[in-house]
Amino acid sequence: MTHDDERFLRRAIELAGTARAAGDPPFGSLLTGPDGSVIAEDRNTVLTDSDITAHPELKLARWAARELDPETAAATTMYTSCQPCGMCAGAIERSGLGRVVFALSTEQLTGLKPPATGAGARQEGPALFEEARKAVEGYYL
User: Fold this and answer.
1) Cα 117 to the center of its chain, rounded Å
2) Where are the domains of the chain?
3) How confident is the chain (141 residues) per 10-residue block, as mean pLDDT?
4) What was the pLDDT predicted at 63?
5) Do β-strands 77-82 and 99-104 pair in parallel, antiparallel, or remain unpaired?
6) Which of 6, 14, 41, 57 is catalytic?
7) Reported pTM
8) What local confidence, expressed as pLDDT, does residue 120 receive?
9) 41 labelled catalytic
10) Domain 3-114 fold
11) Fewer CB atoms inside 10 Å of the end CB: C or N, the chain?
């Protein structure tokens, strides 16, 4: 962990505080470019935007995928107040970002929250492989 890593993580934590002050869950993130300068930052707006996907990591990954060429994206670092959730981690991977540095781990965050209630959505499958594969087969070649 470098001095710059710590400085950028502190900014991500500040953004998390801004989200909380606005009534949103306390998460913040920023991207630094290849030269180490901040190129984008965001905070959680799940409640204020009425959008369950408005996590800062997802918003920045989407921005990077739209605005950065692949070489630049690979040379960026995302700094985030908490380890990205599964949704955000998938978006980060697909956006081609090069590195993620986080403050709180998922395990640490879980220890700061009340226990989850409810069983979550039940998933069923796989099913209809022969039919479903026709839309996908050959696409990724």
Assistant:
1) 23
2) 3-114
3) 97 98 98 98 98 98 98 98 98 98 96 86 93 94 88
4) 98
5) parallel
6) 57
7) 0.91
8) 84
9) no
10) Cytidine Deaminase; domain 2 (3.40.140)
11) C
